[in-house]
Write a structure and sequence with these properties.
The protein is an alpha/beta fold and 448 residues long. The chain has helices at 9-18, 25-35, 50-64, 81-94, 111-119, 129-138, 154-159, 163-172, 191-198, 227-240, 253-265, 279-291, 301-304, 324-331, 352-362, 391-415; strands spanning 40-43, 74-77, 102-105, 124-127, 148-151, 178-183, 203-206, 217-223, 245-250, 270-273, 296-300, 312-317, 341-347, 367-368. The structure holds adenosine monophosphate. Adenosine monophosphate (AMP) binds next to helix 3.
Length: 448
């Protein structure tokens, strides 16, 4: 319960207004530690309620210790503009009954306007690293008074090449501040460097056990032959599945745009979200998706990071994501805060190994699903015969044994050079009876 967290009454009022009843696990564990002023290193999945886990303790601290003459008191760094928007929205909701001001600084928006925002001295700045570094370098803002630095989705920031910017910003912050780092995984390469630079003896909270994660999401795999086949599968699923809002992921921007056109042609209310769109176009499609005018959003990973839209209950991976973490981020868009969802991945023969690797990573096997009337030729890799070794492998072993025997004989012959040979009953090496016949030899079959 939130009331057990001893949060300021004005925050509890906002929480009640939002309809949050119980704390999520990340909130229950991280909020007390953050309130105690500890640095935190938290691995928590997308959709776990981590935004409230870092916003509420910071807001509580500012309400309990007003500092009207202070500069910016909290800085929240996020990887994407979309996520920045969502964090700002939650922040305004939690701060509804307070006078705490927050502002958002993201790329693609007017620099001078942003500079004027800093002059209003907001307590909380939510920013993407690239644009914030420009402001720091231009002297528009400083973080000398900073009390809390939050690095949200730190793994994503690394993925997107923000490591230097994050380090630069962390160095510019008051070094007595508290730092809270949230990441879907703590195994990301480069994370150690940031942790070493930005955190001070952090408490570590691991809330993700891949297995339990997303238990409210049914994860299915549909085998596909090629893009043509995938197009048909997608159109059929969008026509026949029961869903409120669907999010379709592709690995390439052009593919996303093409599919959007195709799905519109098939009478879907489809929109596209990919990195080449202007900020205005992104905002437009996101608001259409939020209000339901668009109910199928076709997106690439980078563009879709941080999307938190209510009612997404179907995620389709038109292309398999490139790794397990991307998969988790994609499917985390559905089944948020314990609602239910379905995630369907299309898998061609080229994507089979990737699917297997992701299953191993998640320690969870996808349900195999076929779409009636659209079964393809690809049925999964050919299985090796289960009764021990394959015929090819057996033959290979016999051949190897033969080779070893021959080598042994050759060595013995070498040792016996100049000695009289005893009459032998065994045929001479190299005689016809020992001759290896390569005809009909098959190397062992490789797994695909
Ligand atoms: P997040 O992981 O912070 O992006 O949160 C995912 C979604 O869960 C957001 O839409 C939040 O508004 C919602 N949420 C967060 N905490 C709670 C809670 N304790 N109860 C219900 N919904 C929540």
């Amino acid at each position: 319960m939130f009331s057990e967290l001893a949060l300021n009454d004005r925050l509890l009022k906002a929480i009640t207004k939002l309809g949050f009843e119980k704390t999520t696990p990340v909130q229950a564990q991280a909020i007390p530690l953050a309130l105690a002023g500890k640095d935190l290193l938290v691995s928590a999945k997308t959709g776990s309620g981590k935004t409230a886990a870092f916003l509420l303790p910071s807001l509580h601290r500012f309400l309990e210790n007003p500092a009207p003459d202070s500069g910016t008191r909290a800085l929240i760094l996020v990887p994407t503009r979309e996520l920045a928007r969502q964090v700002l929205k939650q922040c305004s909701q939690f701060a509804d009954f307070t006078n705490i001001k927050s502002t958002m600084i993201i790329g693609g928006e007017d620099f001078k306007f942003q500079k004027s925002q800093f002059r209003k001295n907001p307590e909380i700045v939510i920013a993407t690293p690239g644009r914030l570094v420009e402001h720091l370098d231009a002297g528009s803002i400083d973080f000398k008074d900073l009390e809390v630095l939050v690095l949200d989705e730190a793994d994503r920031m690394l993925d997107m090449g923000f490591v230097e910017d994050v380090m630069h910003i962390a160095k510019a912050c008051n070094n007595k501040r508290q730092t809270l780092l949230f990441s879907a995984t703590l195994k990301q390469r480069g994370l150690e460097e940031i942790i070493g630079e930005a955190l001070n003896e952090p408490e570590k909270l691991i809330l993700d056990t891949h297995k339990d994660e997303h238990s409210q999401i049914r994860q299915q795999a549909v085998l596909a032959d090629d893009n043509d086949h995938k197009d048909k599968l997608l159109a059929t699923l969008l026509e026949n599945e029961t869903y409120n809002k669907a999010l379709v992921f592709t690995n390439k921007k052009v593919q996303a745009t093409r599919l959007c056109g195709l799905m519109r042609y098939k009478n879907n209310r489809a929109g596209v979200l990919q990195g080449d769109l202007s900020q205005e176009e992104r905002n437009h499609v996101m608001s259409l998706f939020r209000n339901g005018q668009v109910n199928v959003l076709i997106a690439t990973d980078v563009a879709a990071r941080g999307i938190d839209v209510d009612g997404i209950d179907l995620v389709i991976n038109y292309d398999m994501p490139r790794n397990g973490d991307d998969y988790i981020h994609r499917i985390g868009r559905t089944g948020r805060a314990d609602s239910e969802g379905v995630a369907i991945s299309f898998v061609t023969s080229f994507e089979w190994n990737l699917k297997a690797a992701i299953e191993r990573y998640l320690r969870h096997n996808f349900e195999k699903r076929t779409i009636k009337g659209f079964e393809g030729k690809f049925k999964g890799p050919k299985k090796l015969k289960s009764s021990g070794k394959s015929a090819g492998a057996k033959k290979f072993k016999q051949e190897k044994k033969g080779e070893a025997e021959k080598t042994k004989n050759r060595l013995r012959d070498k040792k016996n050079v100049g000695k009289r040979r005893k009459p032998s009953t065994k045929p001479e090496p190299g005689s016809n009876t020992h001759k290896r016949s390569d005809a009909g030899f098959e190397p062992p079959k490789k797994r695909i």
